[in-house]
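note to self: dont lose this again. the chain is below, predicted strucutre after it. 238 aa total, dont forget to put it in the shared folder this time
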Amino acid sequence: MSGTCDLVLRGFLNREGGRVMVGSSGKMSRVSLFAAMTILVAAVTSCYPGEISSLDEIDLVLTFYDTTADFESNVTYAMPDSIIRIDDEGGSAAANPAIDAQILAQIEAEFTAIGYTRVAAGTPSDVVVLVTASRVDLDYWHTVGWWGYWEWWPGWGPGIGPGWTPGYPWGPSYPGRQSLGTLVITMLDPNSSSVENQEIPATWVGAINELLIGSDANILARMEDLIDQAFLQSPYLQ
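---
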């Protein structure tokens, strides 16, 4: 397995200014999301002509962000103490306490490292961070039933309620589906919400493909590096 192919598979995909960034040997090139995934398929074919024997050989980190967002002004964030796991009925599946607490702690550590301060639910914050995990294949930018996942959380400001959904400015240009076990970290800006459209704008998303597939030990062994990669390839968050 070459280092270049491993880098492509393991995470240097980042949407910037209407494109996706694909990293290879430290170099960046601009391609569409479709082309990026085509490159990944070709990489898998060329680097792994036989059976893929380890999950970390196919790990992939995607990050998307709104190029108009003012990340420099972000200082505080609020984040629920739960990961919503979307099951095959579209509802919220049972949590995995052994994994979820460590994932949330890692995400909090990453935000702390880039200068963000976590505040309690109900305290005004610059952004809200939500974490979901797919138990099925589903669209990256799905919004059906979204409020039902999060209505229990007391951190929403006044005016946000049933019928509200996230707004993904890059969504129409970058359709796609997340695989079973994908972990998605979404940053929302409730202070810029559209009352007319009942939308809370998403400013950044980090998606880790199939992180939650495998044993608890396997997931935890891969978790730190992959979550860290989502932040490493998003320097604009600082």
